[in-house]
Amino acid sequence: MKSSPSVHHNIIANFAGKAWIGIFSLAFIPIYVKLMGVEVYGLIGIFMSLSAVLALLDMGLSATMSRELSRLSVVEGSAQESRNLVRTFEVIYWGIGILLGILVILLAPLITKHWVNSTSIDSETVEQAFIIMGVLLASQWPAAIYTGGLRGLQRQVVLNVIRIISVTVRHVGAVIVLLFISPSILLFFLWQAFVALLTTVILAKWLWKSLSKSESYSKFDKGLLVKNWKFASGVMGISLVAMLLTQVDKIILSKMLTLEMFGYYMLAWSVASAIQGLVSPIMNALFPKFTQLVSSVDEGNLIKLYHKGCQLLSVLLIPAAITIAIFSKDILAVWLGDVIVVQNTYQILTLLIIGTAFNAIMMPPYILQLAYGWTKLALYTNIIAVICVIPIMIWLVDMFQGIGAAWAWIILNLGYCIFMIPIMHHRILKSEMRKWYLIDSLFPAIVVFSICYTSYIIMPNDLSVNLGFTWAVVTYLISAISVSIIFPFIRERISYYRVIACEKIAHMW
What is the residue extent of each domain of the chain? Predict the structure, then answer.
């Protein structure tokens, strides 16, 4: 396989891509609403929900592609198998994408009639929009398999460059079309479909270009499906149960609470879930490297990278989570600007952010299990969690409403930390459990909590909303810097980039 960039380059690229996509996605929403109207924009929301639900039909193939290409990249004479793997999964993915697109197109009249309740858009336009959605879905669906392949080969810098360019062209081009041709939802979806297809083709070209050459043509190999089905089905099962666990609180609350109280909970959840954006860039970079080290039986370097990944995640995650948890009222006051809404939301946010932080620090152990091809632990743990947590959540919601659901979220994720980690380290990296608990997780949490809680206690009570928010931001910066200097490799990396930056500045002058 061709040489690949280092893990830290991939992490930086992933963060850049994530930030760019997030900023663009949020920035263009009010523009679309202004140009097309809220109800028309609702069709975009329906497509986003539809895409999220249908993503479950991935069947674990993209994760399997990533893992297998990572493993094969350190196996001599594996070029032909790698190319056959890509061709096999490519055929399946394009087939699924085309079938899903046709299904949406055929169901467009029924969806228009029985699902969408529109007062200002005629049914013909809605039906045509769903037909184009089918084309868009078929165009963008196969991109996941090429994305998984590029991640597995550690081509994450070029992957994020493609994604950044794609999202820029999608949004900027859409606004140009809406402004200078027609503010039509049909033109919007047509443009999205064109860019999606172009992006998928470019991703495919880069993946095939990144594979080592072989003497024979790539071919569909049914044996590779049989060989990888166990892992793929395990990942699919984990994804299904995990989706249930992350959505069960909304299902229960939407039934048991008033719409107003449910709205407060969802506001808190939107903030708490945002810190998950700190997790995926690191995990996407670590997973292929973990897989390579496992395949090479290089446990020494695997242990080092495992703890570095856990510690880097702690540095990025824990200061943000604890600051938001302690200063939730001050942060929400600036964002929402409504005293009543803040009063009904901040306690829920405090609890949800704690539960989400527990969930996030479990990600490196989880992807380590996947690198070993071990899916049963996460699958069985999630199934047991569903059985235990749902009745607990119903009882807590009945007693404490939204705050009860937030407590159930903490119980669920704290349970993962207490029970899953010992089971995992009893089988893999057997001597590393103590370091994960004490050094990687608990110690930075104690340091950050001490700083943030002390700052909260000494904060004057009469600060304005803006000054209160500023106080929270300064507290976060102090805690983040403090916890960063705890870990030697992070200090070294900061020093490395500082030297490079200084050299570049000096060269410019």
Answer: 7-220, 230-508
